[in-house]
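In this section we turn from sequence analysis to structure. A common task in structural bioinformatics is to predict how a protein folds when a small molecule is present, because the ligand can shape the pocket around it. The inputs are simple: the amino acid sequence and a SMILES string for the ligand, here zinc ion. Study the lines below before reading on.
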Amino acid sequence: MIRFRRMIALIPIVLMAACGSDGAEAEAKAPAVDPRLRIVEEALGSALPDQAATVFAAVSASPNRFFELLDAAVAESAAAGGLLVLVDKRRPLDPGYEPDDLVSLNDYPLAVTRRDLRLRKAIMGAVLEMDAAARADGVRLVFASSYRSYEYQDGLFKRYVASHGEAEASRFSARPGTSQHQLGAAIDFDPIDEAFASTDAGRWMEANAWRFGFSLSFPRGMESVTGYIWESWHFRYVTKAGATLEREYFGGVQQYMLEFLDAYSR
Ligand SMILES: [Zn+2]
């Protein structure tokens, strides 16, 4: 049924190409039109109504690049068992969800603030590559928080509620099940506070994280979109192609890209 509807939706593109006033030019371009453009437009319309026109204009301007990045990101994500899962205040993970490839950061030459940090093995290649690149630039990345289980997040959130009140706590801390940290692919760098942004590490990550597949999850001034205040220290791995896709088509906003992908993959 869905496939049939999509086929119908493609017909106008073909007709326009064949019957437009500049018919010869349109006909010559017609084979390059990716039939998935219409599906992208539908997904944008349902997931990001406010951003749909802007994003779709960018996609339409260079669709081949868009689909190349999209396909690479989705393939790497699928091979690793889901690196582009949308987790936010409205879309929680299963309480029992735990990645099956968690490894201890103690087994790698990384600077840490505590000895119980774990991340998914699937992202360690990118983590090490990024860390080495930072060191080569004279910058030290210090890992301060990583994978958190549902239970750990539950305790953390309750402590913040006790100290800050529920409304304030929920602006900077996730309820259990809604934290990206449960994915094992999100990292908080030291110091975990707004001072990070003006450290060498903070400036280096802001400029370079995307080259290694990492993206700032909660950018400045985006609380109404992400649900969280600016967290300059919190990065999530979204694959290298995904991080480039986010920069080039989604205004550098991870939440927009993940919401689109969530709708596109349905
Ligand atoms: Zn975090």
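DSSP finds twelve helices and seven strands in the chain. As an exercise, try to locate the residues that line the zinc ion site and compare them with your own expectations.
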